Records
---
Amino acid sequence: MAAVLGTLAPVLVGCGGGDDDSDDGRRPSGEHVTIKVPADAPTISAAVSLAKPGDLVLVAPGVYRESVKISKARVTLRGESRDKVVIDGRLQQPNGVVVSAPGVAVENLTVRNNTQNGVLVTGSAKAAAGLPGQSGGYDTGDEPVTFLKSFLVSRVTATRNGLYGIYAFSAQNGVIEHSYTSGSADSGIYVGQCKPCRIVVRDNIAELNAVGYEGTNASGDMYVVGNRLVGNRVGLTTNSDHQEKLLPQKDAVIAGNLIADNQQAATPEQADGGWGIGVGVDGGSANRFIRNRISGNTNAGLVITATADIKPDGNQVLDNTFSRNGVDVGWTFPTATKGRGNCLRGNELRKTVPARLATTASCPRPAQSSSPSGTWTKPTAPGGIPFTEVAAPKRQPQFPNAKTTGATAVPAAPALPDPADIRLPSTSLLAAAARVLTS
């Protein structure tokens, strides 16, 4: 460490920073530095240990076989090259990057081959320690709910991870954007256990995962907008689950997404066997699905169902375009738990189960009105492949001026989108999706 500090000393003199007044006398307060890996520190973890709030850890191309833990506020971790800066877990560690402090940004790098998560952002000490999560989801027992407040994950590629690619658990006030996930054995992007979330998941690509996006017990100011969820086993789910706290799931906005062709065989199998579904609502309530393009899902475009004891109430399906799905919208309640007040308006539909839902369950609908239920013939799901064998991702867009831009200031709370401003995705994106899946 002395050698590292000696290398950094010329950088730190006269341009320090952070919330502390000094850095052992070498760093004045009020300014921030860039710590380069490996020029100033031999590993990413070593650079993070030197960083103060407001600093940038800038990583040169290379494969870094380490698990990076960021427990200092307002540190930016950025790769110089998104596809050439690789944090590789070698299937020997649970997480690639763990963020447990507010105001942290993780940008422009690839995280792969972790037994649990590529990037984990969390206020849970148990989750940060990698203790739970062996069977999907995080059951933290009697640990009190503690939120990490404010985060940013941007232009990250997360591939071939054993649970989730990018995972925000027990966190609030954050953004996951411009990222790519594939080969996740559970879901590519996951938001869990937050209320109110105040989280925006926007402009991401999720393909070749068991599930593209999953929101479990993620309620209140939760926005999933403008994403491309194509070629997974299931495109998107929003659900309630007793394995996590803050039941039930409520009040998410799912808008302007392309959710297509989610029956890809060369993917990891989902734990409950989901297959060929664009959107699944399982015990979630008061969610709004607005102007999504949902196409080519062989089982169903959008399914509303109930968990064993948590009913889905008051979901609204508004102005979406459905095409080429086995069933466009299907409501099915196989147990005594029934939904109420779910409704549709303004959608392009071909087939619903039960039939004529657009007429019999038109919005607005009384909150206590019983939602009808039906069944349909579902295709048989093929066997999956190990997450370690999923196709490698193609090169993804870079963070602009990654080497010269300073640290990213993460706001205390993100600006939330106005659903009225979110448009239906163009039909041209379906052709682009088909090219990706067949190339």
---
Amino acid sequence: MIEDATTKVSAPPLTATPTRHRRYALTMLFLIYMLNFVDRQIVNILAEPIKRELGLADWQLGSLTGLSFALFYAALALPIARWAERANRARIVALSAIIWSLFTALCGIAQNFAQLFLARVGVGVGEAGCTPASQSLITDYTSREKRASALAFFSMGIPAGSLVGMMVGGLIADQLGWRASFALVGVPGIILGLLAFFTLPEPRKSAFAAKEVQTTPPLRDALRELGRNRTYICLTIAMVAMSFGTYSNLGFLGSHYLRNHAEGLVTLAAAVNDLTGLQLGATGFLGTALGLIIGIFGAAGTWLGGWVTDRAVRRNLNAYATIPAVAALCMPFALLATYLTSNTLAALCLLSLPMMLQSIYYGPIFATVQSLVRPRSRATATAIFLFFANLIGLGLGPLSVGLLSDFLAPSLGSGDAIRWALISTAVVFIVAATAFLAARKSIHQDIVS
């Protein structure tokens, strides 16, 4: 029998997960999510060499970093999540990692835009099974009091993956070309996926498998539950806006610096080479610099958001929304300072601030979504949540920036065109902050698990 959405319920019986197994599982899911973002974001540092070899426009680059990935990712996430409510979530995550890694490797043999677009679609198809099932698993591994921290640790895969993707992609591209970068980064995901398939624990008791299938609510009931949840709707709007701004900026960071700071990058690369004996080119240096900045400060923001939120919600549940709202309100100022600075070193240093601010919301928002629905609807809630975030935020964000850059280029030049196209994304962070603040009004009565 389907209970009213406002009724507080307990999770189905789960096997006791030993601490060592829980730590192993969280570490494994973090590593898989990291590779998720390595394969998703590596195209960003390779955008300029791809653009030159294949003769692409900025709107095509935007579609490769966003739309191609988001189309099938968004379409498949919900049916896979419904499957995850009933099936072995650990194996779904493992198979997803193997599939997206194979398609990442195939990107390296693409001969034109259409082939590369289709290969990126394949990456999105594989990655559609990762996040909803992973977050559902993590929620079963941990208590609500530690949920934001656990999901923040998982979400640190985003900056860590961006670090590895940017750094490794740039270094390999410098030495072997962009095609080799795709081919080589696909291999670890296949290996890790196979390891996870055989070793990642599923905390549901097998003895309760039949009962769990029966108690999983039909999709229409899950949708009705979510549609009545004001907090869930507000957070979905916030997530869409944050994703739009975040993915737009990540998609064209490499292009912005290579177009507007080309001489400065060559000078900095030469200085690093003199000090270290390396032979970095501009792309290799930029990939390393961006990877370190995104990875270190993105991870710091993700950890900080989860850590502060877990402590603040002991006093007031509003902290789940207040903390990300403050970070979102600061984003426009951080972006303006970064993109309007003419000094290359200063522009790279200032980038650390928006990278940290845009990562603070991961732990709080995912922990809230997992707490807004009954246990048997968690993967579905995450999938619907990410459907809109990826279709609109990831799918249209980079594409919109690319189109605006192409529109401005004849009058401003390619460098200033991409600069102002990126600055225009500041407005969506205001939208996100407004939605976060609106969620504060209903969060107390909407949390059910």
---
Amino acid sequence: MTQLTEPPLTTAGRPAWRHVSVSAVVAGLVAVAISYAGPLLVVLGAAQRAGLDPGQTASWVWAISVGSGIICVSMSLVTRQPVVVAWSVPGAALLITTLGDYAYSDAIGAFIVTGVLTVVLGVTGWFGRLMRALPRPIMAGVLAGVLLPFVLDAAGASAEAPIVAGGLVLAYVLGRRFLPRYAVLVALAAGVTLAFATGTTTAPHLSAGLTVPLWTTPTFDLQAIIGISLPLLIVTMAGQNGPGLAMMHSNGYAANDRLLLGAAGAGSVLFAPFGAHSINLAAITAGICCGREAHEDPARRYVAGISCGVFFVAFGFAGQNIVELLGAVPEQLVTAAAGVALIGALQGALTDVVTADAAAVGAVRVPTNGGRRGAAGLEAGVVTLAVTASGLTVAGIAAPFWGFLAGALVYLVLSVTARRRGA
């Protein structure tokens, strides 16, 4: 288990520009590219299903991009840690089936309620205390379950497009061998070059205009709050903020949950009238900025968080053009790039699932098959991973929540059983 540290003292009081590195800037760019390549499409799907007009949709993209970018930059500078926030992907998936059932202004009001509740859970420390009370393998299991499908999809993409996607994966392996800090950049460059060489790219339809945000005055409806706010809060906290904190912890950063969740919730409230459904700690792309690909020195990885924020703000004003550009390259290239970029993060999460010291996480020793001693936290972590990776969706709530719930239940049952046997 990676030891948690306070914000690195080696960077204190020094200007951020002195710690800028190509690998950290690229890590921020890759994180943003992955956010636009996949998660943004979920948002666009929700907007389409809800019947939003192009102006409202563009404003939604602007709000989640610019809001996320401002928090990334400010929190990374304040904490000197690679803080990456983004929009709630399971939350957007939830909205695909629910947003169209309510007036848009009522949905905006529900988004504000979710943000306020996030602030309360964050600044009071209630959510942080809950996370610390649970064994690390459970949260690591949620994180690993979220990341694993992306890495597995890279293998499938390589089979579908062996030259482009397979070449990208091979370039990443070679990059890890000869240029480990720039392996992701090498892989992306190789993938784009191969895509052009094989003629698998298309011409994007770009425009010179910038995205203009639209204000929607919120209204508050009890049914919308029950139907949107509460489910959105649950899937965002369990599926994004929890794994986001786990991601930072697994990479050695003692994240201030009160500060970070409070900032994310405040950002959600401020940008909700422009369409932002939820701004939260990133679980997937954070692994790119927190891991070794950003920089070998953990004290200098915060630059990746700043870079991510800057690109978010810039791309937010050209959101439609970014979508066009990402649509111009083969889907398999984006899938493979996401997979190789997240290998390091998955490795860290899996390590925490299977090797976290039971005493350190408060796990109760229980008997396992063969008479050997195991840890309740370990078994709960494996169950959490399996349920989360399954993609299970029940009542519109995505798999990370159910994986978290299943792991917590297994841990509770095994802990109680062990205590009774020991009594």
